[in-house]
Amino acid sequence: MNAKTVLVTGADGQLGSTLLPKLTAAGFKVIAITGSPDHKGNFPGVSYFSADLSSEKAVTILFEAICEGNPSLNHGIFLAGGYRHASISEADESLVRGLFDLNFFTAYHISRLLFMQCMKNSEESRLVFTGALPGADITSDPGSFAYGLSKSLLFTYANAINQQGAGANITARIIVPVTMDTPANRKSMPHADRSKWVAPSKVADAFCSCLTDKPEEAVYQIIS
């Protein structure tokens, strides 16, 4: 791939801060999207923007501003999202809509615009999403029903991208990490068995590989 510019959402999170230097070391110019305008990133080779990614209007304005200075942008890694515990009996409409905004629309709005731009380009394009085990199998954890439902949309969406973007050499993949070993998770789950957790660096390496290596046949990879 000649053009090496990648957009990364959720860049101010634990995984994002681990991923950014790996991408720049691999030769990518990085457009980092954060959730807070107050975030002060300092990684060389990274340009920072912020927006409410759940708002289609805000994302459209943001994307136009990004493309003005980065006409070769044709890769995306979508990390933004979050978890809330809720079984079916606990998942009222407000909570479900909130998780759809948090885990689907934060990826959908901006990746859709990138997809449409990539359809016009001749360069190979890769769009990589952050999945979750309950999204791949909604029955795997009853307490994560609402979260899994919101994440499951990304699997359907990635399949649609692969079908509709095949003629334009657009590939969508999903990285599905098990619980990551982060300070926040250690604090919220102090008694969990951390031997089954995965280091953020290993997950970041998997995202990088989705851009630099030949795409895997499977749409999603579980990283453990």
Please describe the structure with a list of short key phrases separated by commas or semicolons:
about 45% helix; alpha/beta; 7 strands; 7-stranded parallel sheet; about 220 residues
Task: Outline the structure in words.
- By secondary structure, the protein is α/β, with parallel strands linked by helices.
- Helices cover 43% and strands 17% of the residues.
- The protein has helices at residues 14-25, 56-69, 93-120, 133-136, 145-164, 183-188, 200-212; strands at 5-9, 29-34, 46-50, 75-78, 125-130, 170-177, 220-223.
- Strands 3-2-1-4-5-6-7 form a seven-stranded parallel sheet, with helices on both faces.
- Strand 4 (75-78), helix 3 (93-120) and strand 5 (125-130) form a beta-alpha-beta unit.
- Helix 1 (14-25) crosses helix 7 (200-212), helix 2 (56-69) packs parallel to helix 3 (93-120) and helix 3 (93-120) runs parallel beside helix 5 (145-164).
- The protein is globular and about 45 Å long.
- The two termini are 28 Å apart.
- The mean pLDDT is 92.
Quick summary of this structure?
The chain is α/β, with parallel strands linked by helices. The chain is built from seven helices and seven strands; from the N terminus they run E-H-E-E-H-E-H-E-H-H-E-H-H-E.
List the helices and strands and how they pair.
Blueprint: E1 5-9, H1 14-25, E2 29-34, E3 46-50, H2 56-69, E4 75-78, H3 93-120, E5 125-130, H4 133-136, H5 145-164, E6 170-177, H6 183-188, H7 200-212, E7 220-223
Parallel strand pairs: 1-2, 1-4, 2-3, 4-5, 5-6, 6-7
Helix pairs in contact: 1-7, 2-3, 3-5
